Amino acid sequence: MSDPVSDNLGYFCRAAASSFSDRVALIDLWAGRERLLTYGKLDERANRVGSMLRSLGLHAGDRLALLIGNRSEYVEVFFGAMRAGIVPVPLNIRQTRPTLELMIRDAGCVAAVLDPLD
Fold this sequence. Notes:
Low-confidence stretches: none
Helix content: 25-40%
CATH class: Alpha Beta
CATH architecture: 3-Layer(aba) Sandwich
Distance between the termini: 46 Å
Shape: flat
Number of strands: 5
Strand content: 15-25%
Mean pLDDT: 90
Strand order of the largest sheet: 4-3-5
Radius of gyration: 15 Å
Order of helices and strands: HEEHEHEHE
């Protein structure tokens, strides 16, 4: 029988991390600079995010608002939350504040990860 927490999309790259740890998984071009993230590093960082979220008091089934731009950290937080059994709620960073507040409230989010302002 599979474990409902460890058998989810958050572990999407686990097999690749085991077999191809040093291969590039993501090329992040955020802010005009190239950052490469290997499968091994993505797997490690997703684990760290999941652990961090749990240490902050989030529990399996909690909803986490994601207000992160199109960058590698989005993938890390998305997969990390799922690994912890937390439900990521992706939101568009270009929405207005009242719209975001409504969506966060409606989804029942108990926490949020926000992209820093430029």
